[in-house]
Amino acid sequence: MPSRLPVPLRLTLATLALMTAPALSAAPAPRSLPAAKVQVGAPLELVHAFYGHMPVGVAVNSQGRIFISYPRWEDPVPFSIAELKDGREVPYPSGVMNSQTVPLNVDRFVGVQGLVVDARDRLWVLDTGTVNLGPILGQQAPKLVGIDTRTNRVVRTIRFPANVVLPSTYLNDLRIDLGQGQDGVAYITDSGAKSGGGIIVVDLASGQSVRRLTGDRSVKATPQFVPFTDGAALFQRPKGGPAKYVALNSDGIAISPDGATLYYTPLASRRLYAVPTVALRDRSVTDAQLSAQVKDLGEKGVSDGLGEDTLGRIYTTNFEQNAIFRRAPDGTFDTVVRDPRLIWPDTLALHGGYLYILSDQLNRQGGYHWGRDQRVKPYALYRVRVQASPVLLK
């Protein structure tokens, strides 16, 4: 038989119940809860809306001229690089350089993705030499092209040997350091899903290149990686299919203000890695020795492109959060901007105290939705005030 409470305690509990019951019943039922804060950080400014084929890369030179890349993925691409002029997308440096023929003209652009401006206002362009993320279209198709934006002329074309650019290589993004060698060096990420990933180092004077860290844990996609966009898990779902994990390797890249450290991340990863550039350039350092010098800098969210400023901060696109975050040298993060309009923020560029952000809806392509294109034009180039300067290594 259960024990009974002492009479004084029973009276006390009853009194409390009587005192609290009217107060609870008198509280009005809430009609709604406060709305979640949709936009965080500085306001986005629309720079340009794209109603044609899908853009991916953006670069801005010292005069504020804006250049855009369009790789040949699912869309017909009439030109692979454009300059934004008076609200129009104009093929750059010429229509001829962007036109293609049958058979393929490897001296013209095939499918450009990465592009960046150096300290001499040269636009360096990464031609993947591929169509729709397929294998390279011959060893001469992938190339690194330098264009002097002061004269709008091609000043350098560099191709790669077969042990550097593999049949499955996808030349993704790059950084330039003019303070190394006779005319500088380029660091390039290979994000190819079947290439093993890697970093390619190019001497811009000689055109010689070397492939580094192929298959290293730091350049490879996380196994069974599942990002989430538009409220759902994202898989590669080609028409006729089967569904596959997103398995793109080393993608985003950034460099420290002194040029001593290269930062990078696989697309299919939430981690940021760093490696000394002096070791990357030194061919006497084996890949095993180089791998031992790679630092895992921890979580940074899911990123496509990266950016950097002269204060040593790393800007990370975050396509799960529709946001741009910024990592300080001490490893802490702050939010630059979060806005639902940033549908797959892809590439970043700094100029004039603004961060330029290209939002391209990459996750809504048909290849992720059983062949059904979910993109809704326009794509967009935004900018946000950050009061920061780009790293231009001389």
The coarse silhouette is globular
- CATH class equals Mainly Beta
In CATH, what is the homologous superfamily?
A: TolB, C-terminal domain
- Which structural category fits the helices and strands? mainly beta
> Which quaternary structure do these chains form?
single chain
CATH topology: the name is Neuraminidase
Number of helices: 4
User: Can you count the beta strands?
Assistant: 27
Radius of gyration, whole Å: 25 Å
Cα(first) to Cα(last) distance is 88 Å
Sheet of most strands? 5 strands, antiparallel
Mean pLDDT: 93
Please identify, by name, the CATH architecture. Answer: 6 Propeller
Number of domains: 1
Q: Give the strand order, joined by hyphens, for the main sheet.
A: 1-24-23-22-21
Give your account of this protein's structure:
- With 394 residues, this protein is mainly β.
- The chain has a single domain, classed as 6 Propeller (Neuraminidase).
- The protein is built from four helices and 27 strands.
- It has helices at 7-26, 95-98, 277-281, 287-293, and strands at 40-41, 45-50, 57-60, 66-69, 81-85, 88-91, 112-117, 122-127, 143-148, 153-158, 171-177, 185-190, 198-203, 209-212, 228-229, 232-233, 250-255, 261-266, 271-276, 295-299, 306-308, 314-318, 323-327, 333-338, 345-351, 354-359, 379-385.
- It has a five-stranded antiparallel sheet with strand order 1-24-23-22-21, with no helix packed on it. Strands 2-27-26-25 form a four-stranded antiparallel sheet, with no helix packed on it.
- The model is unreliable at 1-5 and 7-25 (pLDDT under 50).
